[in-house]
């Protein structure tokens, strides 16, 4: 069973560089076009359903992809919701370090809770879709933490996921495997993860 984890299309807050989190900002015109482009890239595979986070930008991206591929839009899963960044939501990302040097935003969901929550969502989707390949539209931080939990790496060592990018994971007999990250084979991504980890270790 293969699942495609797709980051939603662009919003005006993405364009402005604002921390978004669980604030429900809709897609902009570029985001809708990105969703259509993502559907074209996914058309070579067989998909049984498309599901999403409950947030509007993810739902609309999923609906656009489903319409273009002729794949039914299924339910939303709370486990796929983006990390809650508390009081930092709406702040320019460029200002975060100055205002919160330790990234300890009041009211935020703990980093270590995000990946396991994402895995719980994947497990529910597997149960609900009986072995079919499923398109899942969610959020950048949620996807990155979920992938990192599967592979045992630090989420901050993973590359940034662009809007409407797709990462493939596979459910096998012994658990989850990451096949690609934002369209790049995981073996190649792994080299970058290890280099980033080394750089940060040497800098500390």
UniProtKB/TrEMBL annotation:
Record SMART domains: PGAM
GO molecular function: phosphatase activity
InterPro entries the record matches: His_Pase_superF_clade-1, His_PPase_superfam, PG/BPGM_mutase_AS, PGM_Phosphatase
Annotated active site: 8 (tele-phosphohistidine intermediate), 82 (proton donor/acceptor)
Source domain of life: Bacteria
GO CC annotations, alphabetized: cytoplasm
Positions that bind substrate: 7-14, 57
Protein's name according to its UniProt entry: Histidine phosphatase family protein
Annotated source species: Agromyces albus
High-level lineage: Bacteria, Bacillati, Actinomycetota, Actinomycetes, Micrococcales
């Amino acid at each position: 069973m293969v699942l495609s984890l797709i980051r939603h299309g662009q919003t005006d807050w993405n364009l402005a560089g604002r921390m978004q989190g669980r604030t429900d900002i809709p897609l902009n015109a570029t985001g809708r076009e990105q969703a259509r482009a993502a559907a074209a890239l996914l058309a070579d595979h067989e998909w049984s359903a498309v599901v999403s986070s409950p947030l509007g930008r993810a739902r609309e991206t999923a609906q656009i992809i489903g319409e273009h591929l002729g794949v039914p839009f299924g339910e939303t899963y709370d486990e796929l919701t983006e990390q809650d960044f508390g009081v930092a939501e709406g702040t320019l990302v460029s200002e975060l370090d100055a205002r919160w040097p330790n990234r300890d935003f009041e009211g935020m969901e703990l980093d270590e809770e995000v990946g396991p929550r994402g895995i719980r969502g994947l497990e529910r989707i597997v149960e609900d879709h009986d072995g079919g390949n499923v398109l899942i539209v969610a959020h950048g931080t949620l996807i990155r933490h979920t992938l990192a939990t599967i592979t045992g790496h630090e989420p901050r060592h993973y590359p940034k996921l662009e809007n409407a990018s797709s990462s493939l994971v596979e459910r096998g007999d012994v658990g989850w495997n990451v096949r690609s990250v934002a369209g790049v084979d995981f073996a190649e991504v792994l080299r970058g993860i290890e280099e980033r980890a080394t750089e940060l270790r040497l800098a500390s």
